[in-house]
Amino acid sequence: VGGCDKTVPAQLMGAISANRPAIGLVAGPMLTSRWHGERLGACTDCRRFWAKYRAGEVTPSEIDEIEGNLATTAGTCAVMGTAS
User: Fold this and answer.
1) How high is the pLDDT of residue 82?
2) Mind listing the pLDDT tens digit for each residue in 48-57?
3) How many domains does the chain have?
């Protein structure tokens, strides 16, 4: 079972290199959410807003709201950045 744009190819390459049959089950990405009308993706926005929080541009209550909206559904990372 995989889902990340990095783990699925790695799992398939592992099965091929071990000369074993494999069935890939891709779990799928989590749905994105919004904060103040802005679409949030887990990895990228987490780092961006954490930097703003450390710079004093985002309040502690705002960072709590943002963190609560980064991973709101089941699934793998909502950001498909490497392979897509």
Assistant:
1) 62
2) 999 999 999 9
3) 1
Domain membership flag for residue 82: no
Q: How does strand 33-35 pair with strand 38-40?
A: antiparallel
Residue 73 in this model has a pLDDT that exceeds 90? no
Residue 84 CA from chain centroid, whole number? 13
Q: Are 74 and 30 in contact (CB under 8 A)?
A: yes
Range of the domain at 46: 7-68
Domain assignment present for residue 32? The answer is: yes
SS (H, E, C) 5-48: CCHHHHHHHHHHHCCCCCCCCECCECCCEEECCEEECHHHHHHH
Q: Is residue 75 part of a domain?
A: no
The torsion angles phi and psi of 23, rounded to 5 degrees, stand at: -120, 120
Q: Please indicate, yes or no, if residue 76 is contained in any of the structural domains.
A: no
Q: What is the pLDDT of residues 13-46, one digit of tens each?
A: 999 999 988 888 888 788 888 899 988 877 778 8
